[in-house]
Amino acid sequence: MLVAATAVLTFGGVPMAAQAADVGTMSELQVALAGNDPVVTLTTDVGSAATDNLVVSRDVTLDLNGHTLYAKSTTIEPGHNLTLNVNGGTNLSYAMDVEGTLTLGSDLNMPDNATITVGTLGKIVSDGTPRTLSGSPAVANSGIITAIVAKSVADKMTGNNYTVRFIDNMPSDNFQDLKVYAPSFAAAGMVFPTFPRTHAKITSWNATSDGSSTVLTTTTPLSGANLYAYAQWAPDGITSIAASYDASPDPASAGDIKLNATDTTPGGNGGNITDFVDFTSNIPADTVAVWDPFTKFLNTGLVGPHVITGTLNGSPAVTNSVTIPVVAGYDIGAIALTMTPTSVVTGATSTAYLSATDGYGNSFGINLITSDNCKDCGGYDPVLTSSDPTDAIDPATGVITFTTLGLHTITVSLDFGEGGYFTADTTVNVTAVPVVPPAPQLKTLAFTGIQQSPAPWIALFLILLGMAAVTVARRRKA
């Protein structure tokens, strides 16, 4: 029997009468839903899941009051609201067509084989307390759902079912995922998240980190299951910056040198503001590459000092410079082997010198044979060999001792890991030790052992003197 009761409500302090209907059968429920009582309450289990259909064509509250409602279908017509209070009962409406608004006055668990259709003007919302739609129904959502949706429901939902990942677009890559069961954030009554950052503000959200793609607003129509939104920041109150590079204070090697900028404004706490800063070099041949907002590289092939200036985007103009001492890069481009001297005699030594240049032609300026652990060649030690296996090679010093004659070919091999495999060679000519004849010696009488008298020598001198005198006399007579 349909029982109507009168409840007293107050509105603005003025008593008002409201009707409530208690029902115990499906026919009574159908009559009550078509009537004008604002609240309809079950007094027992009602209906048949096989045959009974319910239509809501006015604003009404249905309280299951701990009982079970069996229905083949429940339809909420456009422009009308059904507030459903389960209150410990069970809703076994196996098909729900929400063309108006279904307001959950309590959590609603749907049967696993149930179907829910939310039309383009349909809504499933919570009352003043967040309510959860759970179970495992198949939901076709062309409208709006702002109630909490359990994962088991979301996994089977088609139509308006979007996950938007908001990324702070900073090196930490903090993010927040928001589920949207509506055509847009505005339609769902949702706002974008915020992320804390000193002296900066989010000006927009973009589908790519560099801001070159689609801008996302609260009214942007959503499409696709998984969407990404990257925060686009702008400086807000930065008055002082510092430019730096990753190798500081050590020299940087030619190639890609990472550049950084920090917030030195009072209260800035040295925050990373590389995304706000443009870098330029005093060397015209240098270039600056931007990989992402916080990853910027100076690319240079020239050794020597490079003055890099960072300029803050926007107003006021704030700049800071850093000098980068660039040395040869650690990636080997070519090697060359020399021997000093290039010509030796047997038994002598010659010393190997292994030089290298980077991919830009800059000299390493060291002997890779004797450098500590050959750090400049990737940790792989050079290997010296000779065409003559009798040559004695000291691998630590590069000193080679030669004992056989001829032209010796000296080869060095260097395994540079992923950088490549290098070889170089040169020659050393080995000659014989020259034979030096002994110096002539003056033989003395003591050496010969013969004793001679001076008399024969004196006699010979007198004879020669007489002959000279005769010759002079004859010339005078003539």
Task: Compose a concise summary of this entry.
By secondary structure, this protein is mainly beta. The radius of gyration is 51 Å and the shape is elongated.
Structure explained in plain terms:
The chain is mainly β. The protein is 9% helix and 47% strand. It contains five helices and 39 strands. The strands form eight sheets. An eight-stranded mixed sheet has the order 1-2-3-5-7-10-13-16, covered by helices on one side. Strands 4, 6, 8, 9, 12, 15 and 18 form a seven-stranded parallel sheet that branches. Strands 20-19-23-21-22 form a five-stranded mixed sheet, with no helix packed on it. A hairpin with a 2-residue loop joins strand 28 (287-292) and strand 29. It is elongated.
Secondary-structure map with pairings?
Layout: E1 3-11, E2 14-23, H1 26-34, E3 39-42, E4 46-56, E5 60-63, E6 68-76, E7 81-85, E8 90-93, E9 95-98, E10 101-104, E11 108-110, E12 115-118, E13 123-126, E14 132-135, E15 138-141, E16 144-145, E17 148-149, H2 151-154, E18 158-159, E19 162-167, E20 175-180, H3 185-188, E21 200-206, E22 215-216, E23 226-235, E24 241-245, E25 252-253, E26 255-263, E27 277-281, E28 287-292, E29 295-300, E30 304-312, E31 319-327, E32 332-340, E33 343-345, E34 349-358, E35 383-386, E36 392-394, E37 399-401, E38 406-415, E39 421-431, H4 445-448, H5 455-477
Parallel strand pairs: 2-3, 3-5, 4-6, 5-7, 6-8, 6-9, 7-10, 9-12, 10-13, 11-14, 12-15, 13-16, 14-17, 15-18, 19-23, 25-31, 33-39
Antiparallel strand pairs: 1-2, 19-20, 21-22, 21-23, 24-26, 26-29, 27-30, 28-29, 30-31, 32-34, 34-37, 35-38, 36-37, 38-39
